[in-house]
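Q: Please design a sequence for this.
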């Protein structure tokens, strides 16, 4: 009489067993989903910083405030490649376009890459 079921102490531990979740080892694409979520989140955070800087600039926030300085510095790092693409006379429109363009591009690329990763 042979028993094909391993003894309880010989089974591999699976933290997802009995929870309704798929096993992390099951080859179900959970790594791809996790990478997609990370890519999606990074793109969203980048766009939020850029949009927040545009908003703070248009509302004439105090530039000597530490929070405003942090947001401006982060937005400058994210939009270094798009600085002065648009050179309008209107300062608000110039900031909107020069920081809004990278925000839209980061969102489109990040969400597009995340969508592709989810299909894996």
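A: Design:
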């Amino acid at each position: 009489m042979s028993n094909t079921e391993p003894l309880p102490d010989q089974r591999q531990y699976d933290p997802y067993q009995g929870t309704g979740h798929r096993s992390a080892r099951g080859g179900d694409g959970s790594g791809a989903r996790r990478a997609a979520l990370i890519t999606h989140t990074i793109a969203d955070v980048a766009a939020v910083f850029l949009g927040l800087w545009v908003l703070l600039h248009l509302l004439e926030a105090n530039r000597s405030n530490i929070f405003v300085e942090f947001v401006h510095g982060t937005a400058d790092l994210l939009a270094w490649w798009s600085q002065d693409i648009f050179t309008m006379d209107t300062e608000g429109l110039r900031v909107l376009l020069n920081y809004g363009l990278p925000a839209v591009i980061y969102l489109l690329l990040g969400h597009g890459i995340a969508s592709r990763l989810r299909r894996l």
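Q: Thanks. Anything notable?
A: DSSP finds three helices and no strands in the chain. The longest helix spans residues 30-58.
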